[in-house]
Amino acid sequence: MKYPLIATAIIAASMAMPAMADRVASELIKPIEPAVITEPAKAELGKKLFFDPRLSRSGFISCNSCHNLSMGGSDNLPTSIGHNWQEGPINSPTVLNSSLSVAQFWDGRAANLQEQAGGPIANPMEMASSHVLAIDVLRSIPQYRQEFAAIYGTEDITIDHVTDAIAVFEETLVTPNSRFDLWLKGDDSALNTQELAGYNKFKEIGCTACHNGPAAGGTSFQRMGVVEPYVTDNPAEGRVSVTGDDRDRFNFKVPTLRNVELTYPYFHDGAYWELEKAVDVMARLQLGRQLSDEEIGNITAFLKTLTGEQPSFAMPILPPSTNATPRPVPFEKN
Amino acid sequence: MKYPLIATAIIAASMAMPAMADRVASELIKPIEPAVITEPAKAELGKKLFFDPRLSRSGFISCNSCHNLSMGGSDNLPTSIGHNWQEGPINSPTVLNSSLSVAQFWDGRAANLQEQAGGPIANPMEMASSHVLAIDVLRSIPQYRQEFAAIYGTEDITIDHVTDAIAVFEETLVTPNSRFDLWLKGDDSALNTQELAGYNKFKEIGCTACHNGPAAGGTSFQRMGVVEPYVTDNPAEGRVSVTGDDRDRFNFKVPTLRNVELTYPYFHDGAYWELEKAVDVMARLQLGRQLSDEEIGNITAFLKTLTGEQPSFAMPILPPSTNATPRPVPFEKN
């Protein structure tokens, strides 16, 4: 009597959601799963650091300034505003789902989020501090010392602790339960006819060759301008600056399409504000396809189904500086 | 049998907290009460607007940039960083408990929070937008249109709607239940001996003449430098710029001492970073008193008991721009 009952249960389950296993297995874009937070205290500390402008020389710029979690984890500017209003060299990628990328930065020069986090702090074009100064600031603040000690077992804060905590916070910034993911998991009503037509066209013309995986991108470096060259006045050369291999010239990390509705303007130079135009450019330059307005509209409608649940959390309250805290230098005096 | 029972209950209640009515009635600093939110949808819309950098020309500066709710509602800079990294003329006052002030800005040129909110948006030194442009941005975003329509009964958004919503959000930004307030309400254990000594000295030398009411300030305009002149290279002249009355020269709104631990640096020019030094300067210049280091330490300890519960809320998620949204101008091109 035992085996038949189990078999019946399995059959019933598979009849209840027949498409689930199929789509998750067969489609090249995979669902995003909610973050499993195994180190909540560390993530909470990382959140404070992510929002703390005292990691910048001016005391004005935090990670959240250019990776604004109210705005899709981006700044919605072509290139970012750095220390002293310097114009950044490249579009700020979204921090959302960045843990799912093969590497960090457009040229992949950081292997992971921890390595990435140290960059902007010390970049004179961005936060314009130094790791030494940032650590001096944090060490001067008793509440930070206590939090680091509770997590890392020492009040002797290092930059590795700082970037580790920020990275652990950033790993929580995933956006599950987009309508597309609901559809992937078997909910046929999650996409309408236009969106489904857009997705089918997206696959048919080959977009999933690069935009695949849970992030619908971030899994490889690809040439920007395969069939036709990409015209830009942005001097970035992409992956070659890391590898030194001339074959990597103009190769950039494929950006995630998750939340692409929120992360305008598009491409490494932030030159395109309209998602429809970005779709048109990609189809022509990468795939040699001239799409009709209807096809572009359909693909754009599909892309908007990739907007997931945005991270929701309480604004962190930062511990105050003390008389011993190195003071910010917002303006350079003569 | 009825009256005696009620009388017993009243006596029991008054014995349980004998100091409560006394201190609340007799002390010049009054407790801060929690915000009563009567228009939650409007406050939520105001929160979005408070955090939305698209109200600035650059798309980078929001109300929260200079009134950072992670940092005591201030930017912890002597003067603020405005559009194109312009140096602001005066220290940004905290937005916390600002609804309790007699007027807004150091010179009181805005009668209330709504009037204040329109200022920085259009100030070329600050957010450098215009009311027309800011409204065009908001009208181009369907989710904002819907929210305004649900609250104000029209999609025809005006600057008055915008500043009203921001003001209603700001009215929620009070900080009740500081240790000092617990003491005011009868909890003798809320202050230690040093803090109580500091408070008694604070009263004895006359600080409460100006720093009174629930915000411990914000109730009047007073001359900066009564007994001795205040030496500064900041050109602000205070209240005279509003009234034209020469007797108001160097009169400034008395700042709140609520959360003063978090709102360094101090005074309208932000020239003093250490609370102890600010106490020393105030005692000498305003009251002609040279305090000992111990007295300064005690008053400083008391002042830190004015740190209340910081507003806690979820980071707002802002609705995305559309193809019709006027684009930000972060950098002026030739």
Automatic annotation (TrEMBL), chains A, B:
<keyword id="KW-0813">Transport</keyword>
<dbReference type="InterPro" id="IPR036909">
    <property type="entry name" value="Cyt_c-like_dom_sf"/>
</dbReference>
<keyword id="KW-0560">Oxidoreductase</keyword>
<keyword id="KW-0408">Iron</keyword>
<feature type="binding site" description="covalent">
    <location>
        <position position="210"/>
    </location>
    <ligand>
        <name>heme c 2</name>
    </ligand>
</feature>
<feature type="binding site" description="covalent">
    <location>
        <position position="63"/>
    </location>
    <ligand>
        <name>heme c 1</name>
    </ligand>
</feature>
<feature type="binding site" description="covalent">
    <location>
        <position position="207"/>
    </location>
    <ligand>
        <name>heme c 2</name>
    </ligand>
</feature>
<feature type="binding site" description="axial binding residue">
    <location>
        <position position="282"/>
    </location>
    <ligand>
        <name>heme c 2</name>
    </ligand>
</feature>
<keyword id="KW-0574">Periplasm</keyword>
<protein>
    <submittedName>
        <fullName>Cytochrome c peroxidase</fullName>
    </submittedName>
</protein>
<feature type="binding site" description="covalent">
    <location>
        <position position="66"/>
    </location>
    <ligand>
        <name>heme c 1</name>
    </ligand>
</feature>
<dbReference type="Pfam" id="PF03150">
    <property type="entry name" value="CCP_MauG"/>
</dbReference>
<dbReference type="InterPro" id="IPR026259">
    <property type="entry name" value="MauG/Cytc_peroxidase"/>
</dbReference>
<keyword id="KW-0575">Peroxidase</keyword>
<dbReference type="GO" id="GO:0042597">
    <property type="term" value="C:periplasmic space"/>
</dbReference>
<dbReference type="InterPro" id="IPR051395">
    <property type="entry name" value="Cytochrome_c_Peroxidase/MauG"/>
</dbReference>
<dbReference type="GO" id="GO:0046872">
    <property type="term" value="F:metal ion binding"/>
</dbReference>
<feature type="domain" description="Cytochrome c">
    <location>
        <begin position="41"/>
        <end position="307"/>
    </location>
</feature>
<dbReference type="Pfam" id="PF00034">
    <property type="entry name" value="Cytochrom_C"/>
</dbReference>
<keyword id="KW-0349">Heme</keyword>
<keyword id="KW-0732">Signal</keyword>
<feature type="binding site" description="axial binding residue">
    <location>
        <position position="211"/>
    </location>
    <ligand>
        <name>heme c 2</name>
    </ligand>
</feature>
<dbReference type="InterPro" id="IPR009056">
    <property type="entry name" value="Cyt_c-like_dom"/>
</dbReference>
<feature type="region of interest" description="Disordered">
    <location>
        <begin position="313"/>
        <end position="334"/>
    </location>
</feature>
<keyword id="KW-0479">Metal-binding</keyword>
<dbReference type="InterPro" id="IPR004852">
    <property type="entry name" value="Di-haem_cyt_c_peroxidsae"/>
</dbReference>
<feature type="signal peptide">
    <location>
        <begin position="1"/>
        <end position="21"/>
    </location>
</feature>
<feature type="binding site" description="axial binding residue">
    <location>
        <position position="67"/>
    </location>
    <ligand>
        <name>heme c 1</name>
    </ligand>
</feature>
<feature type="binding site" description="axial binding residue">
    <location>
        <position position="83"/>
    </location>
    <ligand>
        <name>heme c 1</name>
    </ligand>
</feature>
<dbReference type="GO" id="GO:0020037">
    <property type="term" value="F:heme binding"/>
</dbReference>
<keyword id="KW-0249">Electron transport</keyword>
<dbReference type="GO" id="GO:0004130">
    <property type="term" value="F:cytochrome-c peroxidase activity"/>
</dbReference>
<dbReference type="GO" id="GO:0009055">
    <property type="term" value="F:electron transfer activity"/>
</dbReference>
